[in-house]
Structures are given as C-alpha cells and as structure tokens.
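Example record

The entry below shows one chain as it appears in the dataset: sequence first, then structure tokens.
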Amino acid sequence: MRGTLDPLTQGKIDAFARRRRRLILVRGICAVVSILLVTMTLLAIVDRFFYMPDEARYALSGLAYVAAFIGAWYTCARLVWRSLDPRELARLIEGVRPDLREDLISAVELGDPNGQARWDSEEFREILQTNVARRMESVSVSELLSFQKISAWVWVATGVTTFVVALLLVPGLRYDSLLLRALNPLANIERVSRVKIRIVEPNPAERSVPQGDIVTVRVETSGTETKHVYLESFPVAKKSEKIEMPFVEGIRMTAVQGQWIGFCSDGCKAKFVEAPPRYLGKVKAFNPNAAPGDARSTDPINAACPVDDNGVNVARAYESSLAVGREPLQYRVRAGDAMTRKYTLTTFPRPEAVAFKKTYIFPEYAHKPNRVAEEETGDLAELEGSIADLDIRVNQPVTSAKLTIEVSGKPSDIALKATETPLHYRAQVPMAASGIYRVHLVSQQTGFTNKFSPQYEIRCVADLVPRVVLEEPTTDLLVPPDEVVAVKGHAKDDIGLRKVMQAIKVNSADWKETVLKEDPGAEYPIGRMWRDSRLHTIGAGSSEIMKEILAKLYKI
C-alpha cells in the first residue's frame, strides 16, 4: 500500500477538479458575455446619437474588449491557467466538508509515491486510506461544487442576452447594425441615422472602373435636411481626402397657410413633388424664382412621397467626382448624421493598342520592295496607292476590334482580325486618300472601350511628275550647221525613271526620239556633245528643236 492513494478517493478528487474547471469556464464565459454586451450596447447608443470619427470608435471598442479581457482573466483564465495538485484540491474539498478535515489531506500525502516514510507504518496507512475512502464514497461532487456558486453570473448573462435579443427584434431600430459596428469597428457597415443616403451614380456603387477615369458620384438624400454633404475617398497608401459635394437639385415641401407648397430649389419649371395620400389634392408646386405666370403651378399633385408635418427636402441631389488611378479606390458619403459604408472602385486598364507593325505594299508600277516599320504610334505615311498592312498588338484580350477611318468627312470601318499570335490583330488599310483613323477596342474581361484612343493620321504622299533641268544650253541658240552643242543637266523623279529620251524636230518635220538611258533610277545626269547631221542637208536658216522626254515607271 506504500505510495498508493485509494482509487475511490483518487476518483472523487479528479471529479472535483473537472467540475471545478467547468464551473470556472462557465463563470468566465458569462462574465465575458455580460461585459461585452453591456459595453457594446452603451457604445452602440453613443454611436447612434453622436457622430464619432473612426479612430474614436476604434478606441472605444478596444477599451470594451480590454474590459472583457480583464473580466475573463479574474473570473476564469487565471484560475484555469494554474493546475492544482492533489493536496490543494483536497484542501478545497475539506473546506466544504469539515468532517474530512485533515484526514483527506493526510491520505493524499501518505498516498504520494514520492513521499518519505518517517513515523508511520503500513498498518496505519492502510487504516487511514480505508477510512477516508469509506467516507468519500458518500460524498457527491455536485454537492461539493453546487451550481448555485455561479448562478448569479449565469442569471446576469441570461438577462443581458435576453435584453439584447429583445432590442434586435424591435422593428426599425436596426440594433443589429449598431451592435455589429460596436463589436467590429473595422466592419464596413453604414451608420444608422435619420438621414438616408442613396447612391445614384455609380450604379452599382461598387464596381470596376477604367484606370485614370473620372468617376461621377451622385447621391440623393432624404429625411432631415442637411446643410453639407461630404465625399470621402481613401486611396491606397495615401492620405484620405474629403470634399464637399455641391447641391445640384431638390424640392422642399413646407406648410404655407394650411397648404403644402413644393419649392423647386434649382429654379426648374416642371419639377413637382409627390405628396402623401393624406395630402392628396392639397399639395401645390411652386417655383419662387420664376416670373409671374411663367413657371408657377397651382395644380394639386395627386401622388405619394415621403414628407412629414414639419416639411422635408425631397429628392435632394448632390454630385461630385473622383479621379481614380491604377490602384483600387474606396469612397463613402457623409450627410448629417448619416454615413454610408465604404464602397470600392476596382480599377482595370482600358484596352489599347501598344505597338504597330506596318508593312507598306507599294503599287506594282513602283517596282519597290515592301517597307516594314515597327512603331508605338499608328500614323501612316507612304506613297499614294499603297496598302498598309497593319499588325496591331493590344494590351489585353478583346471581344471587338476595328479601325474607324474618316476620309473627306466620310467614316468607314475595317474589321481587325485576330492572328495566330495572342493579342495581335491585323487589317489592311488602302492609302487612296489622306485622312484619319482610330483603333476601336472592347475589353473581353471588363467590357471597357478605349474611348480615349488617339487619332492617327493617314498621309498619302502624291506621286510627283518627273523633272528635267537643262543647265546647258539655257536659252535658244543660233549656231552654224556643223556646230557641236553641249547638252548638260539632270533628270529626276521621286519614285524612279523608267526611260530618258531626247526628241529632235527639224522645222515642221516629225519628232525623232533617241533613248538616252533605260532604268536609270531616281536621278540621271545628262551630259553629251550633240550634233545633228541633218542640218547639213537643209541648209542655213533652218531651225531645230530639242526636248528631253522622261518616262515614269507607271507609264511604261
């Protein structure tokens, strides 16, 4: 028996430890629930009737959680954290059962296998263990640790929870939103308020927008009249910004001499308010800014709208704009005691043409090889009559791609066809006349268009006539029949010369042509000593005329 505690006694001590732990945990949970619900309800009440900056809400919610943590520590965590040994548990049991005082602790100490035997014996140990086990058999653990010890905590937690549930069931109170804003101050929940804000644009309020766009934000407020409406934006990694939204339109209903009159605040002529059923036939629209007999109306309005006996602004609209960059942008609207949740504008790039590969196919008469140019711009400039084969690379997949061409004020479209290379589209543009064109794209992912696509030029270079310049002779000459005349000059063309000829005419005879050079290129120097033997046969006084004939490539 040395070093062995009776199994019955050991079982009762273990059961006592387990029940004690459970009761402490229940007490801790009740304490945390009560503290959190009470403090958060108080915070919700403050949030309902007083506007608090986000930082203040964060701080107050943090203090509430600190209070709950302190309550949990003192009622539960510090007791559960430390595990009691059998001697301490036996002392707690003896505190409830005085009849076991000193005997239970002695049995535990003598049953410790690590204990040292001094002034005792095996018989004494056996007698004590048997005696304590017989008395522990009748001990009920539920009586040692009665639920009454924590009943107060349970009742308080139950009462607080019931009160909160009742608040949640009150229609129109919106206590659920108030409580969630208190429990999680970082949650994206709009503020419960008397003023109501409806976001008209963008629609939906949370959407994808093109990068670099200006997004119009238009809201309508109802309920208590507000003097100022603010638009707050929260750029990524930047300081938040707040701007006041200008008032754009609205109508005020007010009681005048027992009748309800609608005042059109933006000076409009035909904007009337709708009246509630109890005012049917009694409400009249009135524009105070209009000239008499012009924009005034005395016709009763037979419809319905939210107005009250104190007068209320109906359909008050405010408008401003947001400049979005490359990163997502959050925004919200504040009017009076109302504040919307934060809405996120996710940005995506618009489709755009980022590179152009241009292959110019010249007319057949030009006898020139195709010219290839790879550029970031889409401007086209080449010989009139050429064809520009465009290979355009875009920055994202698109569902629609075309070229919109305008020549002499007449628009036309050329479809861009997808190639085997991803993100590459191809089309041929005939360069018959100068004009402009744009690349029109529709994104496959977002449906955005490239409405800011630049305008590209189509410049057709005219095919100029060939030129010949005679440097010698510069004027008509009077020479003897056997005189040798120096002919010097050059012939040129922008595309190229097919043939250079010299034509001579004596008196009224026909022209006689002599080919000087075939396929000389773009420029041909003329230099020869010319003497015509026919002048010997016609005698003195005869005249001869010479000219150079240039043939362009397309004429041959």
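Notes for this example: The first helix runs from residue 7 to 49. Confidence is low (pLDDT under 50) at residues 251-313.
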